[in-house]
Design a protein that fits this description.
- This protein is mostly beta strands and 219 residues long.
- Helix content is 5%, strand content 36%.
- It contains 2 helices and 13 strands; from the N terminus they run E-H-E-E-E-E-E-E-E-H-E-E-E-E-E.
- Strands 7, 8, 9, 11, 12 and 13 form a 6-stranded antiparallel sheet that branches. The chain has a 5-stranded mixed sheet with strand order 2-10-6-4-3, with no helix packed on it.
- The chain starts with a strand and ends with a strand.
Length: 219
């Protein structure tokens, strides 16, 4: 995969191979292993973009945090992606290709405040037949701001003008979200690995909390 121009860049936070998700057939879209339901009093963190949810795709929990992926609607790509196949030199996503908006929601289901980095949570996602399973393709598709807004998702977690700086506090029962786009033109059988960079406090160096791999086959 070769990037051209100044397109979106993948995160170095998630280092796991997405093929692990596809190998674990027991991890489906409805049961992500060690999962838990968010607390009844869940609310969006004061510094975060308002969280909108759709049809639940999968859910997984780890270390007092719950990650839930929601399907927010299909659309078509408005222009070619800025990432090209190394062999064919064709864009990985072409204008008019089928794309799916997903909202990745992080909820503090523990009993203590957590501190998270900018634009969390992170998602590594790729179709089964993709040669880019170690890089992921959830951030290679271009969409206009109107498309993002139309599907009630956004590619930044923090609300503009929130007055809060990183690391961002996430109290028990609070949540935040970040939107991603899946280019379904690359395949319908997908694997996912979610992660979040957390801090014990404002002076902590931080660490990655990685969630159990998930898989889902779209129609």
């Amino acid at each position: 995969m070769t990037a051209r121009g100044s397109g979106p860049r993948g995160s170095a936070v998630v280092l796991m191979v997405i093929a692990a998700a596809l190998a674990l057939g027991g991890c489906g879209s409805d049961d992500g292993g060690a999962t838990s339901s968010p607390t009844p009093s869940v609310q969006t963190a004061s510094w975060a973009q308002e969280v909108v949810t759709g049809e639940k795709l999968w859910q997984a929990s780890n270390d007092g945090l719950t990650l839930t992926a929601y399907v927010m609607g299909e659309d078509t790509a408005e222009q070619d992606a800025l990432y090209f196949d190394d062999v064919t030199n064709e864009p990985l996503v072409a204008k008019g290709d089928r794309i799916l908006f997903v909202n990745l929601v992080l909820t503090n289901t523990g009993d203590e405040t957590r501190y998270i980095a900018t634009d969390q949570p992170k998602l590594l996602a790729a179709p089964a037949e993709s040669p880019y399973t170690q890089q992921g393709v959830a951030e290679i598709t271009y969409a206009s701001d109107d498309q993002w807004r139309e599907h009630d998702v956004w590619y930044h977690t923090v609300r503009l003008g929130s007055g809060q700086s990183s690391p961002y506090p996430l109290a028990p029962g609070e949540r935040c979200a970040r939107g991603y786009i899946l280019p379904l033109s690359l395949g319908l059988e997908w694997g996912f690995v979610g992660a979040v960079w957390v801090y014990a406090g404002t002076d902590d160096s931080g660490r990655s909390v990685t969630f159990e791999p998930q898989s889902h086959t779209f129609t």
